[in-house]
Fold:
Amino acid sequence: MFETSLRLALTLTQIGVVMGIVLLTVAILTLLERKVLAWMQDRMGPMEVGPYGILQPVADGLKLFFKEDIIPAGANKLLFSLAPILSLVPALIGFAVIPFGPNISVEFFGVEFKPFVISDINIGILYILAFASIGAYGVILAGWSSNSKYSLLGGLRAAAQLISYELNVALSIVGVLLLAGTLSMVKIVEAQGGNWFFGIIPNWFAFALPFPQFVAFVVFYLASVAETNRLPFDLPEAESELVAGFFTEYSGMRFAFFFLAEYANMILVSCVAAVLFFGGWQAPWPFLQFHGSLEHLAWLSGIFWFTIKVYFFLFMFFWIRATLPRLRYDQLMRFGWKVLLPIALGNVVVTSIMAYIFPNS
Amino acid sequence: MESGSELLLGYLSGYFPILIFIFLALAFGLVTLALSYLVQPKYPESEKLSTYECGSEPFSDSRMPFPVRYYVIAMLFVIFDIEIIFLYPWAVTFDQLGLIGLVEMMIFIGLFVVAYVYAWRKGALEWD
Structure:
């Protein structure tokens, strides 16, 4: 009995910490995005709230929290209220299988648990893909239930875009699964230890033999940018044509939930990119992590490297946004179906042939 | 030797934290909405509640018909996504399957390509 309740308490603590970190990172990102865009455009960005504007996310959050929540006349009330939650929950629970640090077990009053991953299920990546698809329901329900033309068009576009790029995400991962031989996120990271080419190049799947998955990574990343509705693929919420797309009619906390979901999804795909293609918590070279007499602190350097990688991919989101103009909708669909899909398929074929010719290298 | 039910239980126990996570995430959403509902002002009026249409009065039904292209894309997605999911178990057990597995999957991918080329030639991927 004691053991069960202790295990439950540990799990609850773990989930609370992960959710707290994700929500905190979302708050940081809202500020960071405006700051990064501002610096790239030679501006200052938000400067009024707190020193250098660092309290801006708090002000934004409070404002949205105290704002009137309008349900437009003619909207389907139940679905309208349900949609933001349906979009937020899948974005949050994807983090349940992300390994944030080394796969170590800690004994705590006789209960063994893994501090850096909430649950290491053996179908980790499939679980993430499955819940990412459920997020599409939130988007399309929001668009349909609002009873607004802009929302409906935005929701339709979003749904078509999500499912089109979902294919590319799923297909670009196959190469990694083939080399790793597992669907578990923890085991995928563990398969990427060490270096090759005289110890210069890390064995991350983006660079590893027998066939580097770098092209697959580019496909995965572009498709992920499209799946999170970020520029240059933000057609579902293109301000200049659709006002705010599927959340035109939303205000207050419900609007904030769509915002939270979008940023949580950005963090999630950055985590997945780091885990699948760039070695998760693995340091690029052995001397860049705690070893020898500091071996027991290796988890600290593991978390450090994971954070660095995730923030790099998040920075790329902003960088791409600041650099590229928005695509047209037909260009967007053509790019997904006629460019990314054949590349991803070709990658699977080449990877499997190479993996057959050079096994276990 | 573990019995079947013990194995199943051990397998399912990995999903228990995920179940808790789903409940906590739901609770976070609902509690935040409820708290916000308690402190927010409520001054509904007909103009405010009308849907946004660039300032003009909303006219006609908002749930208008939309192009059939979306259905075609959805159907293609279902077909191709199932075919891609077929690749997953093959990829995971690739090492044990040997040449047979490789050849069989190349034939499968060949069929995939045939379907893809057919959809392309029929213009299902065009968007105009």
Notes: The mean pLDDT of chain B is 83. Chain B touches chain A through 66 residues (CB under 8 Å). Chain B has two domains: 4-49, 68-122. Helices of chain B lie at 4-13, 16-39, 46-49, 69-92, 94-121.
